[in-house]
Amino acid sequence: MVDTEVRKRRRVGGGAMSAFIVLLTIAFLLAAGLRLLGIDGTRYMIATTALTPYTTAAGVILGCLALLLRRWAAGTVVLLVAVVLVAAVAPRAFPDSRPNGVGTALRVMSINMLAGQANPTAIVNAIRNNQVDVLTLQELTTQAVTALDNAGLRDLLPNRVFQADPTASGSGIASRYPLTAKSLTPPATMRQPAALVDLPGKQDIEVIAVHTLPPTAPEGPETWQRELAGLPTRDLNGPPRILAGDFNATLDHVGLRRLLLNGYVDAADETGAGLAPTWPATTFWPPPVTIDHVLVDNRCPVDTYATITIPGSDHRAVVTQFVVPAP
Predict the structure, then answer these.
(1) Which residues have CB under 8 Å from 200's CB, separation 6+?
(2) Residue 248 exposure: Cα atoms within 13 Å on the Cβ side
(3) 288 found inside a domain
């Protein structure tokens, strides 16, 4: 009888604490299940999946806390699931081995201009400082084109395939090298121009400025899924292909993972920066997530990746260098 009373006293918090741990466990398992089972579903489910790195950290903490409080069943289950999530998320923080590649080094930068409000001088300075060869722009307004040219964009990247718009739906590609406009995606809510970049030598490259509709919009989930599915996979019979822009998706979403299984690598993930958030750029709510990407044809070894704060935009610019192999 005494031993039983001692054991009960050791369970800190009693029944109320047990109920609280159970509720937290259920919430964690539901969030983890969305990621592990590949369920995008509603906009709330999609937003929850975007927070998978935070869910993973919370699961580790919750599991350890539950074991510390002697809630053995809850702690064991939570930690086991958390370990599976860690195995999926943690590798993004470590660089992958880089294969040897001989060819043309190319630097690509992408920035969402927040309906043209991003500071044009800051963008041009980032292009100059990072020696950018190809730039993709999302939410490119007609007024922003004029502002960028006044800041010196045309002097640095004189070739362009722009589909600017008075609203936030415009996008564009600017390049140091000649461009030929192409049509590589079906019609979408936002403009998604594509171009063949005529690089020095025999090997060229295709670039698509990606901007899918945010899935958190009321009409967003189905449209977002359809637009992600409409992005082209790698073409082994054609030039290497690059998808750069605002995917409104993280590496935990099914649509983006499907692209990575079809011939692309994520430049941030390749260089150990896969957990570096890109949106929102300057606030901590909602929790920052990584939704801007440069997906590189896996025939192209990735060298570097960085994010850059651009005043006036709620997204951080992303810039990467990779090698376009000789044919």
Answers:
(1) 104, 177
(2) 22
(3) yes
